[in-house]
Amino acid sequence: MFRNHFLITSLCTVVTAVATSVITVSLIVPSRVHADPTVVEATEFRLVGASGVLRGRLGTDPDGAVWLQLADKSGKPRVMNGVMADGTAMLNLRDNAGAPRVYLQVNGNESLFSMRDSKQKGRLFVQVNNDEPLINLRDAEGQGRAFLSVDAQGPALWFNDATGKNVLTQR
Questions:
Q1: How far apart are CA 46 and CA 59, in angstroms?
Q2: Is 81 helix (H, G, I), strand (E, B) or coil?
Q3: Coil, strand, or helix at residue 45?
Q4: What value, to the nearest 5°, has the Cα angle with vertex 57 and ends 54 and 58?
Q5: CA-to-CA separations, 4 to 11, 13, 135, in angstroms, rounded
Q6: How does pLDDT run across 75-105, given as a tens digit for each residue?
Q7: Phi and psi of 43, rounded to 5°?
């Protein structure tokens, strides 16, 4: 009888210890969240180089814009690319000083390519608006001087002086 009592007591002790261990571990160790391993979600991702310099960012803004920014090895932004809140798709390339120099954007029925000089004056504009192309060359003051377009009437070429006055038009 003593032997049966000892065996039952030992068995109860072992079962109690195992049950207590399982309960304790389940309370202490947080449960795992099983996410889809092919999906990563965030509002911003940052790409940091081996030296610790921020080299790229991909993110969203509260207004609904989404963008990608790439930087040179010193961390200066050189490429900006995105879709603005109003749906305009854009690409912006910057020079060594970080100043914007080349723009490309598309919105609705208009597409635009433009280039700026080192003083940030727009010098070249190529656009298609309502299916009509226009090339505009500007001087150092930003004044439109030479234009080439094609519209329903055909091609047109015109030149303006430094004050903006038309000096020659050819259709």
A1: 9
A2: strand
A3: strand
A4: 165
A5: 10, 14, 102
A6: 999 999 999 999 999 999 999 998 999 999 9
A7: -90, -15
Q: What is the 3-state secondary structure (H, E, C) of 100-139?
A: EEEEEEEECCEEEEEEECCCCCEEEEEEEECCEEEEEEEC
For 153, the token pair is 């009437």
Token pair recorded at residue 164: 């903006």
> What 3-state DSSP class applies to 116?
strand
pTM above 0.90, yes or no: no
Instruction: Tell me the sheet residues that pair with 104.
Output: 91, 113
Strands 54-60 and 66-71: antiparallel
Residue with tokens 């009888």: 1
pLDDT at 23: 55
Give how far Cα 134 sits from Cα of 91, 144, 147, Å.
20, 12, 7
Query: Which of 114, 108, 148 is closest to 131 using CA atoms?
Result: 108
CA-CA-CA-CA dihedral for 108, 87, 71, 45, to nearest 10: -150
Tokens at residue 84, please? 């603005």
Is residue 81 within 8 Å of 71, Cβ to Cβ?
A: no
Can you tell me the distance from the alpha carbon of 146 to that of 50, in angstroms, rounded to the nearest whole number? 48
Contact 135, 115 (CB under 8 A): no
* DSSP designation for 31: P
Show the tokens assigned to 46: 């940052």
